[in-house]
Amino acid sequence: MKKTDQEHPEDPSTILKKLRDTETELKEARDLIREAEIIGKIGTWEIDIDTRKVSWSEGVYRIREVDDISLGINLKHGIDKYLPESKNLLDKAVSRALEFGEPYDLELELLTNKGNHRWVHTIGRMYPDERKLRGFFQDITERKQLEQELRRQAHFDYLTGINNRGHFMELAELELSRTKRYSKPLSILMIDIDYFKRINDTYGHKTGDAVLKKMAKICKQTLRNIDIIGRIGGEEFAILLPETDLEEAVVVAERLRKILDDAKVPNEYGGLPIQFTVSIGVSSLMSDDDNIDVLLNLSDGALYEAKETGRNKVCVS
Known about the structure:
The N and C termini lie far apart (113 Å). The chain contains ten helices and twelve strands. It is of the alpha+beta class. The protein has helices spanning 12-40, 58-63, 75-80, 84-100, 141-155, 165-181, 196-203, 205-222, 246-262, 292-308, and strands spanning 42-48, 53-56, 73-74, 104-111, 117-127, 132-139, 163-164, 186-193, 228-231, 236-242, 278-284, 314-316. Strand 5 and strand 6 (132-139) form a beta hairpin. The model has no long low-confidence stretch (mean pLDDT 87). Helix 7 packs across helix 8.
């Protein structure tokens, strides 16, 4: 007859070795998880449905810059560090998950315990049999910053920081639609720096860039927040003036021309500061049939007249 295992129990040393091997495997698994959390900037969390107590993995503590990992976290504390809009989104999502079992998937903004801004991706899912809401938490700050930078590059001129031609046209079309809907006036200025090629040839392109940046800065400081400024060519700028008729636009253009005429740009060669002038063409919306291209062409025609008749002046279409 074959003898059973109970008749030949394992040697204690063998059992001890198996236990040690299991502990080693568990430690290696924990270390791998910890390393994955660090590399992936991720963590996990869990909410007890009955007590509302929140448990975080080490990765979440690390992302949220909470030094005391023994800290007991309740649900309110876990949500309070989010920025207001994100806090409202998360509060509603967690409430609906706890009440109705709805999963959620959100990208949110928070401040860490040390006051640093973070973007995080968090996913929550109910486990009703265990009375738990569990989720995943990842730091996506670098990705969000890259997305914001790509959007900035797509919309704004790399040198001056104002709208590039494409974004200016998008904003102008939206403003034109609003203007027509509410029967408001609208005007456009086209501005060109006089003798800009001479500035580049005499002082170098670095100084030319400084002139362009000075021009953009003065426009932003002088104009209203609702005015739309764009660099639409090398040294050409366009300015959309909402709720501004032709007479008012001419006043704005003359004020801007005089301020720019007084502006000074440092001379990198150590000489006297460089001054420059601009010519400006002005047009206004006269018909519902007019579009942005029509207004720009009218302003461009007036700008051409200003340059042909002496420069450093304002002409009206």
